[in-house]
Design a protein that fits this description.
Layout: H1 3-30, H2 39-48, H3 50-78, H4 83-112, H5 120-159, H6 164-186, H7 188-191, H8 200-216
Helix pairs in contact: 1-3, 1-8, 2-5, 3-4, 4-5, 5-6, 6-8
Length: 223
């Protein structure tokens, strides 16, 4: 097995790690503690289960570490045929990763709020604000990840290292990220009208790429 083939399978494994850690952090760790529409109950749940919230932060960092590996490995594969496009795509990905790393500090700030010694009602308001800003930061990062997936989909389509349908799914994931994130940032009332399944192609596209890389790698002559 060539180096590119090995790197492709490793990228698939790390991509699955990215998805797994990300889902755990967002849905299991944080999601289990957030009470929609009730800042006081949310703050109480977070402060009472600080270890769970911290594990979510660690999962976030593990997700970012995996995605750094994915970005580097895929750039190494595609730069041979399209160096400028591959470097541009990798740059978008790394910017998104850096933004999410900074976003994790907002979670750390939440756990520091009790040190202020303020009343519980005031702390609940701060928790609510920081969670909202954390969500906004996540949406901003998805703009860059969306651009990355669009370019990556084009690289797959152009290079034929994988089936073109995988490239289309990855590009669709990028387009959905871009539209959804820009809509929430620029026109939240309109974004709220988007169907819940609108972001489904994002998960399908990235999961398809991860599974294909892990199971089949790449067509080495076209990489």
């Amino acid at each position: 097995m060539s180096a590119d083939a090995s790197h492709a399978r490793l990228a698939g494994f790390l991509y699955l790690g990215t998805i797994g850690f990300g889902v755990y952090a967002e849905v299991v760790a944080r999601g289990a503690l957030i009470v929609r529409g009730d800042p006081a109950a949310t703050a109480q749940a977070i402060f009472a289960s600080g270890s769970t919230f911290r594990i979510g932060m660690i999962a976030d960092l593990a997700m970012l570490g995996c995605y750094i590996g994915v970005t580097i490995l895929l750039h190494g594969i595609f730069r041979k045929r399209a160096p400028l496009a591959s470097a541009t795509a990798a740059s978008f990905s790394l910017i998104g990763i850096a933004m999410l790393a900074c976003d994790t500090l907002l979670s750390a700030m939440i756990l520091r709020l009790p040190d202020l010694g303020q009343p519980s009602s005031s702390l609940a308001d701060w928790v609510y604000l920081l969670l909202r800003v954390h969500g906004d930061g996540y949406k901003v990062s998805l703009v860059f990840f969306g651009a990355y997936c669009l370019l990556l989909g084009w690289l797959i389509w152009r290079g034929r290292a994988m089936p073109r349908v995988v490239g289309l799914l990855v590009a669709a994931a990028g387009a959905c990220n871009l539209v959804n994130s820009l809509a929430w940032l620029g026109a939240p009332l309109w974004a709220a009208q988007l169907p819940q399944y609108f972001t489904l192609p994002t998960l399908l596209g990235e999961l398809a790429l991860a599974l294909w890389l892990l199971a089949f790698g790449i067509r080495e002559r076209e990489a």
